[in-house]
Amino acid sequence: HRYTEGSSYKKKFAVSTQHYSFAVKAFVDVAKTLDMSQYELAIRETKTAEVIMDVSTMKSEIGVLYLSDFNRKSMEKLLNSANLEFHPLIECDAYVYLWKGHPLAEEACITMKQLENYPCLAFEQGDNSSFYLSEELLPTNEYSQIIHANDRATMLNLMTGLNGYTLCSGIICQDLNGDFYVSVPLDTTDTMTIGYIKRKNIPLSLLGRKYIDILKS
C-alpha cells in the first residue's frame, strides 16, 4: 500500500476493551499526541469474547479485560489457546457503581442485601456466553432483578432512570463520564485484576507501549 502510486499510507493502531471509561480515556490521551492524519485509529468497547478474538486475529494490538478468582482458570485457558498473554495492571476491590442520586450513594459500604430492591445491570455477552466471560464480579449470584445492556451510555441511563447499579473496579473516569456517578465499596472479599492482553512473542509497537504507559498512570 505504501508504494502504490497516489495512495497515502497510514499507520494503524487499535485497542479492544471491556466497557472501561479509563481505557477509552487512555486512548484519547494517546490520540492527542498524534498527527491523526497520519494514522488510522480504532477503539472497540465490546464483549469479552470479542476482545479476545480481536487481539488473537490482530484486528487489535491490545485488549483490556479483568481476571478474578472465579474466572481466572477458564480465562487463562482461553487466552492460552488463542496464543495470547495477560499482563496485570492493577488489583482492585469490588465497588458498586451507581448515580449520585441513588438512595445508597452516601453509604460508606454496601452489602448485597441492601441491593436486593434495585436492578443489577450487566453487559450482554451473547447467547452462548458463560459466566466466565461476564464483565461484572459475582456473575453467579441470584439477582432478584437484572437488566442486560450492550453499551456504556445505556448502562448509565439505566442507573439514573431505574436506580440500577453495576459491580465494578471503582475506577471512574470523570473526564468522560462527568461527576454524576459514584462508586461505593461492596462488602465482599472478591477482587479483580485488570490487565491487558497481547499476542505472544510479538513486542508492542511504539504506540502500544505509549498506550500501556498512559493506562498505568
Strand content: 25-35%
Average pLDDT across residues?
91
**Main sheet record:** 5 strands, mixed
Q: Roughly how many Å is the radius of gyration? A: 18 Å
The 3D shape can be described as globular
Put simply, the count of helices is 6
Structural class: alpha/beta
Tags for this entry?
10 strands; 28% strand; 3-stranded antiparallel beta sheet; alpha/beta; 5-stranded mixed beta sheet; 217 residues
Write the SSE topology.
Blueprint: E1 11-17, H1 21-32, E2 39-45, H2 48-56, E3 62-68, H3 72-81, E4 84-93, E5 95-99, E6 120-123, E7 146-149, H4 152-162, E8 166-168, H5 174-177, E9 181-185, E10 191-199, H6 206-216
Helix pairs in contact: 1-6
Characterization of the model:
- The strands form three sheets. A five-stranded mixed beta sheet has the order 2-1-3-10-4, sandwiched between helices. A three-stranded antiparallel beta sheet has the order 8-5-9.
- The protein is globular.
- It contains six helices and ten strands, in the order βαβαβαββββαβαββα.
- The protein has helices at 21-32, 48-56, 72-81, 152-162, 174-177, 206-216; strands spanning 11-17, 39-45, 62-68, 84-93, 95-99, 120-123, 146-149, 166-168, 181-185, 191-199.
- The longest helix has 12 residues, at 21-32.
- By secondary structure, the chain is α/β, with parallel strands linked by helices.
